[in-house]
Design goal:
Elements lengths: L5 E12 L2 E13 L4 E5 L6 H8 L7 E6 L2 E2 L5 H11 E5 L10 H11 L4 H14 L15 H12 L6 E5 L7 H16 L3 E5 L3 H4 L4 E6 L2 E2 L6 E2 L7 E2 L14
Parallel strand pairs: 3-8, 3-9, 6-7, 7-8
Antiparallel strand pairs: 1-2, 1-4, 4-5, 9-10, 11-12
The structure holds adenosine-5'-diphosphate and magnesium ion (MG).
Length: 253
């Protein structure tokens, strides 16, 4: 078995609301292997964003730890964590989070500036990334001049700026019409086929179908935390070790 690229080990997270601790994650363990395409589904408030943020080093667990490509996030200095985030993980959010006063091209370039990539290479990579997301002709447009689907594709190009092995997406199609949403998912599927490890959250079963592995979260706990899952076309979870037998609903696959 390959070493997991993402390993979440008994992570708990509580937020303090006044004097009361509100539990958001209650002992989550999860291994994700390189090249996997994982969809996390669960009701609003179940801890999906909290888990993604902790995996992405944007938030810290109250207990437990997260290892990314062999590095324990909790043990890293601020600087090393920032570097790891810049090089190992791209983030895409529901609201695109583009810089409004930057053009598409400048948004995509921004993480390369942070990573101190030279100007010539930056321009070259930005051009090829915008081509990749089919927006070469929108390089000089501002986010306000782009549709939601186009803005999300700029956000994906930006997430890919420093060639990270991992892409993390939180409700990336949540604000899009279904055609644009499907286009985004097809793009993610293509990236996954090329080897990128992807973890994303969605409410939409049509988007979830693109994943290789589906994980449900309820009240801060995973329903199917461990083990390798096979492709599950109808949204059920099929454990690879059992997939030659039957689906969870009892039917033969
Ligand atoms: P989801 O993304 O599944 O909708 P979240 O991870 O955002 O859920 O939230 C999980 C729980 O943690 C919810 O009860 C939410 O209210 C709480 N929570 C999330 N972020 C904070 C925060 N910054 N402060 C206090 N409570 C929070
Ligand atoms: Mg959320």
């Amino acid at each position: 078995m390959t070493r997991p690229i993402i390993s979440v080990d008994n992570v708990h997270k509580s937020y303090l609301m006044g004097k009361e601790a509100v539990p958001a994650l209650r002992g989550v363990s999860l291994d994700i292997e390189p090249g996997d395409f994982v969809c996390l589904m669960g009701p609003s408030g179940s801890g999906k964003t909290t888990l993604l943020n902790i995996i992405g080093g944007l938030d810290e667990p109250s207990r437990g730890h997260v290892t990314i490509d062999g590095e324990n996030l909790v043990a890293l200095s601020e600087n090393k964590l920032a570097r790891l985030r810049l090089h190992k993980m791209g983030f895409v959010f529901q609201n695109y989070n583009l810089l409004a006063n930057f053009t598409a091209q400048e948004n995509v370039e921004a993480p390369m500036v942070l990573a101190k990539v030279g100007r010539r290479e930056r321009k070259e990579r930005t051009r090829s990334l915008l081509e990749r997301v089919d927006l070469a002709d929108r390089a000089h447009h501002y986010p306000g001049e782009l549709s939601g689907g186009q803005q999300q594709r700029v956000a994906i190009a930006r997430a890919l700026a420093n060639n990270p092995p991992i892409l993390i997406g939180d409700e990336v199609t949540g604000d899009l019409d279904s055609e644009s949403g499907l286009a985004i998912m097809r793009l993610l599927a293509k990236l996954n086929e090329e080897g990128m490890t992807i973890v994303f959250v969605t409410h939409d079963p049509r988007m979830a179908e693109f994943a290789r592995r589906l994980i449900h979260i309820y009240d801060g706990k995973l329903e199917n935390g461990k083990g390798r899952k096979g492709r599950s076309p109808v949204g059920g979870v099929v454990d690879a070790s059992e997939s030659h037998q039957s689906k969870p609903d009892g039917s033969n696959s």
